[in-house]
Amino acid sequence: GAGGWSPLDSNEQQWLQVDLGDRVEIVAIATQGRYGSSDWVTSYTLMFSDTGRNWKQYRQDDTVWVFTGNSNADSVVHHKFLHSVKARFLRFIPLKWNVSGWIGLRVEVFGCSYKSDIADFDGRSSLLYRFNQKLMSTFKDVVSLKFKSMQGDGVLFHGEGQRGDYITLELQKGKLSLHINLGDSNLHFSNSHTSVTLGSLLDDQHWHSVLIERFNKQVNFTVDKHTQHFRTKGDSDHLDIDYELSFGGIPVPGKPGTFQRKNFHGCIENLYYNGVNIIDLAKRR
């Protein structure tokens, strides 16, 4: 209909903020100029947030993305995102507008509801996933999760076995480190410890995604679309974990093979271990 958003001053300090009411998956946006006017935006950037306080810029190919806006008041310019965004709040930030008019915008946001299981960790808690049997011996493992934190250090998950096997994912000074040891019952003193570090500034209170895929000695470790491929050391192909995996920290530090580490302080979302939704299991006790 008539009208649209036009701020009192047309300068680069203006923005239009949209509250979607809940965290949703946003896949596309569209803009128009202000109805029946000479006011339209020719380029703009986009920011998004879960809280309305902590903002992140929409990026593509690791650069802040500048969207092409409108060339008249009425044509709709539609942009589909290369990667969907999960957020509650959006900000449209005009960069340039019609030289013969002012800033003018009508916007539409396209998306769908986002199913999410989230667990909060206070730096003292951990979530235990106990196996049905004493020993879990796997040739293949897939772990996926998203996390956000203000703390630069903390264990995201840990599991270990009597033979010296272990797998640990932890934040260290804002970077994510994956430690794996595929022990071998015949080689108690084998040098089979492998550590790989990815990412930086991951303690910025924004969501970061993690995917770990292991098949025998071959591991793919992905953090926010950056993947490291590596082979574990040692002669063993399988990972032997006793009793349980712990998420968010190590419940009983000091057992053989563990090291004194801080527990995780932040949120973990959609946590899957070999197809099992861990947080949903915890909700259902």
Walkthrough of the structure:
- There is one protein chain.
- The protein is mainly beta.
- The chain has two domains: 16-113, Galactose-binding domain-like (Jelly Rolls, Sandwich); 118-284, Jelly Rolls.
- The chain contains one helix and 21 strands.
- The strands form four sheets. Strands 9, 11, 16, 17, 18, 20 and 21 form a seven-stranded antiparallel beta sheet that branches. Strands 1, 2, 3, 6, 7 and 8 form a six-stranded antiparallel beta sheet that branches. The chain has a six-stranded antiparallel beta sheet with strand order 10-19-12-13-14-15, with no helix packed on it.
- The radius of gyration is 24 Å and the shape is elongated.
- The mean pLDDT is 90.
Write the CATH architecture name of the largest domain.
Sandwich
Q: Taking Cα atoms only, what radius of gyration do you get, to the nearest Å? A: 24 Å
Main beta sheet strand tally, sense and closure? 7 strands, antiparallel
CATH class of the largest domain: Mainly Beta
What's the number of extended β-strand segments? 21
Would you tell me the structural class of the helices and strands? mainly beta
Note the gap between the termini.
51 Å
Number of helices: 1
The pLDDT mean sits at 90
Provide the CATH topology of the largest domain. Answer: Jelly Rolls
Q: Which shape, going by the Cα principal axes?
A: elongated
Query: What sequence of helices (H) and strands (E) makes up the elements?
Result: EEEEEEEEEEEEEEEEEEEEEH
Q: What is the helix content?
A: under 10%
Subcellular location: Membrane
Pfam families: F5_F8_type_C (PF00754), Laminin_G_2 (PF02210)
Family: Belongs to the neurexin family.
Domain F5/8 type C: 1-112
